[in-house]
Amino acid sequence: MSSGGGSNSNNRVCHFKLVLLGDTAVGKSCLVVRFVRDEFFEYQEPTIGAAFLTQAVVLEDSTVKFEIWDTAGQERYRSLAPMYYRGASAAIVVYDVTNAESFKGAKSWVKELQRRGDPSVIIALAGNKADLAGTRRKVDLKEAEEYARENGLLHFETSAKDAQNVKTLFVEIAKRLPKAVAPVEREAFPIVAPKASKRSCC
Amino acid sequence: MTSLQTAAAEMEKDVEFDPAAVSIIRQHWIDRQLKKRELEFTEYRTVTVFCGTYNVNAKIIADEEVQRLEEWLFPDAGELADIFAVGFQEVVDLNAVNVAMDGKSQQRAQAWQDKLDAVLNNKRREERYVLVAERHLVGILLLVFVKGVHSKKVREVYGASVGVGLMGMAGNKGGVSMRLKFYDSYLCFVCAHLAAHRENVEGRNSDFTNILQKTIFVDKALSGEADTPVTGQGDVTEETRKYFSEVLDVESTLQTGISILDHDVVFFMGDLNYRLDESVDTEECFAKLKAHDLDFLQRYDQLNMERIQGRVFSGFSESPLNFLPTYKYQPGTSSYERRPEKKLRCPAWCDRILWRAKEPEQVRCLSYRRAELGLSDHKPVAAQLLTKVRMVVKAQRQEVAAEIHRLLDKVENDQHPKVTLEVFDNSTLGSPRPLNTIDFGLVRYGVECRQALTITNVSNVAAHFRFVPKLEEETICKSWLSIQPRFGMLLPNEVGQINFKILIDLKTAKMLNTGRDLLDDILILRLENGQDFFLSVGGTYARSAFGMDLEDLASCHGPVRFLPLTAAKWSQFQSSTSTADKPHLPPTSVGGPTLSVPKELWRLVDALYRRGLTEKDLFIQPGVLTEVEGVREALDTGEELEENVSVHSLTEVLLSFLTSLASPVIPRNLLPSVEIDAQILRPWTRRFLEQLPPLNYNIFVYLVSFFREVLKYHESNRLNTEKLATICSKTLLPCNELHWGDSVEVASGPAVGKGEEHQRLQSMQVIFHYFLTTSVF
């Protein structure tokens, strides 16, 4: 035993299933590849199926291990999505800031999650391709923020290409996931002023 | 169960794969990696720890004199200590009452606590101290204060007491201890009062050993909670929990207990009661004291001698005794007790402070001295110890942990199997197809179509693949498709083949003809511990008269191939014919009044009538497969039947056409429910004909008339009435599971047993025989 025990109690790893949803070609796979491998490919083949990867996010007091399911965005496979969001603790609904249709699509994904997903699922709305927003923006940032606020979603504009907000997106989700109570918190000793009533230490 | 079976079951349990175990081992690995790299995220902070020990001989200092404690507690110069660990002995008389009852001890402990607090938090100084904890056992009292600025850095505080006095357990002698986490170091403070009397060195040694062995810090609250989840994932079985109990985490450690020596630094103070060796004469001692020859006397200090011999306080350090022995004084004076009426005692360094650090360089003694307070027959002793404590820099630690996890994630993700899929392209055009589409092209009734896909393991691990059903479905694909194999394993670089076959039989044709199903499906090919692939499988169904409903066929003048196929359009047809419970074709497709018999039937019968009546073994000999397919195709597309087609192929198509009808020519409810004998045959058959629906009547009459014609040539075609009656039974009656399945839903009818069913078929044979031989129409 090291140092009287307990020195490692805050490394606790909690596992959570996370699913990426959204219309086709909004950049779901690119976000995952950027997050997991820190890479970006200008041409990413469409996902026809559901890709599985794991990646940990180390927080101050715990570690969240994401089991990530990146799903196909094509409309043809939409009916298969419940297989992947069922039992998910978190979902990232992605749209493309240069494509207004994809934002409509994102809203319908959110609606579906709210109706059929886990009631406690944490949903993050990610407006991807933010690097193109300067010239080609079609989805108003304010409007998206307002929608996210009304629906209790996290919201970020991300860019898998220049990595903007990608890590933040996953970290913020990780922070909101319910972790088991770390033992060290319970052991915090309530220090009393000496004048207070008698107290012995155990 | 035999003992052998039990053993086998037991073994099975042992070898069971346990994901929780993997998770715990992994967690342990991460912890060890972090520990190895501790220096990368650990900073050291030097704090001053004041340790004081005072045997107060049951005296208590008056409130107006508490300032005199300052001389003991505060050094002449330098900063005030960060931690005050103050130990007292004999706060009460060690009489039997006080040993047995806590009341007086409690009261005195509180009094000393208040007085110390008053001194430490004197308004003249800015520093404020807060009490971490107080613990006492009869006369022994330990108080630990920390500077207010550190109060949030004190955690995991536990206390323990061990009595070693009378019978080894009463509290007149013993030790009280307190442990805590200060920043990220674990500190332990022990205040002890060991066995008295100059000659009793062994008693003191064994008291020390007892205190070390018996002091166990346990979290009672935690030991009560057995079922706290420990890994943050999955269900941890009791066995797994037990197996890994020592590494699980702090909870299990605190349940089993932590010992004094487990801490980074131990501060040990108290009236340890070691005297000068008996070889030193008391008068000689006084002489040496007068000459201030402390070096000489130190050499004869029993504790020093025992430590050199390695018999006690192993691993502990102490500063040189550069102060006069602290015992025994005339109370209230600075004179050793030499009054004639008192027992003459050799002065001794009873009151001592030692420390033990896991890393010895982390503690340095700034001062070791005594104070001159005259309250007791002992003088108080104090040590100021510069102690390095660990401070984990959370951000740096987080960075290191993230690096470790990144490495782990990379290894784990690389362990996922990966495969590539390639669809065999059968088309001569050889145009590349998307990898996930298996297109069968035009699919005809009764014609088997095959496609294949190669699957190549391009990873370094074995790939286990299998097709899985979609959510809330039970089968992996629709019934018109079969997959071989449905699962398999591939070693790295191994290539496998998956075969797909579509065969439209009468069951599936019915669904496809009515548009309730399409030749379109998505398969989920799962790579265990890897990704899921979606495979689109489909083709264009060539609509066929086979498997259709009689009425639909009769209302269709053109070839059936060119009728719309989708469910949506089909439902339009249904709504346009509100009375019918079966789907009918819309007026636009009809192009005229309902035909009296389906044209497909007419075309076959007509061809046979013209070419086949005299054919030997008519209706008995099977046709040629390719010709059969050709005839079907011609019927469905409206093309001419080929002239050279064998008559047997035509008869085979005719019979299969009849059996494939969505509902039989003779409905099930018209089967006889009584045995048919010669007496009732005639009236029964009349009623039977009356009850046949018009279209079915037409077809029945048409076919029977044709068969009668066939019988005229029985000499050349070798048919007879029996054979034809049997053919009628097999084709016109409910003859497949769909027909029977439909009729089972007629709940109002009486339940029909197998024997009874057979009986009905027998009767129908008689009836067909009658129709074939009698000119009733």
TrEMBL record, chain A:
Q: Which Pfam families match?
A: Ras (PF00071)
One annotated GO molecular function is: GTPase activity
Keywords for this protein: Nucleotide-binding
| InterPro entries given in the database record | P-loop_NTPase, Small_GTP-bd, Small_GTPase
Q: Which CDD domains does UniProt cross-reference here?
A: Rab5_related
Question: Keyword Isomerase on this protein?
Answer: no
Q: What name goes with this protein?
A: Uncharacterized protein
Organism per entry? Nannochloropsis salina CCMP1776
Organism phylogeny: Eukaryota, Sar, Stramenopiles, Ochrophyta, Eustigmatophyceae
From TrEMBL, chain B:
Record's keyword terms, sorted: Cytoplasmic vesicle, Endosome
Question: Which GO biological process entries does UniProt record here?
Answer: phosphatidylinositol dephosphorylation; signal transduction
Q: Name one GO molecular function term.
A: phosphatidylinositol-4,5-bisphosphate 5-phosphatase activity
Where does this polypeptide localize?
A: Cytoplasmic vesicle, Phagosome membrane; Early endosome membrane
Q: Which Gene3D superfamilies match?
A: Endonuclease/exonuclease/phosphatase (3.60.10.10), Immunoglobulins (2.60.40.10), Rho GTPase activation protein (1.10.555.10)
Q: What is its main location?
A: membrane
Q: Which PROSITE patterns match?
A: RHOGAP (PS50238)
Instruction: Report the SMART domains cross-referenced here.
Output: IPPc, RhoGAP
Taking every annotated instance into account, which residue ranges of this chain make up the domain Rho-GAP?
A: 583-775
List the InterPro entries hit by this protein, alphabetically.
Endo/exonu/phosph_ase_sf, Ig-like_fold, IP5, IPPc, OCRL-1_2_ASH, Rho_GTPase_activation_prot, RhoGAP_dom
SUPFAM superfamilies recorded: DNase I-like (SSF56219), GTPase activation domain, GAP (SSF48350)
User: What name is this protein filed under?
Assistant: Rho-GAP domain-containing protein
Q: From what organism does this protein derive?
A: Nannochloropsis salina CCMP1776
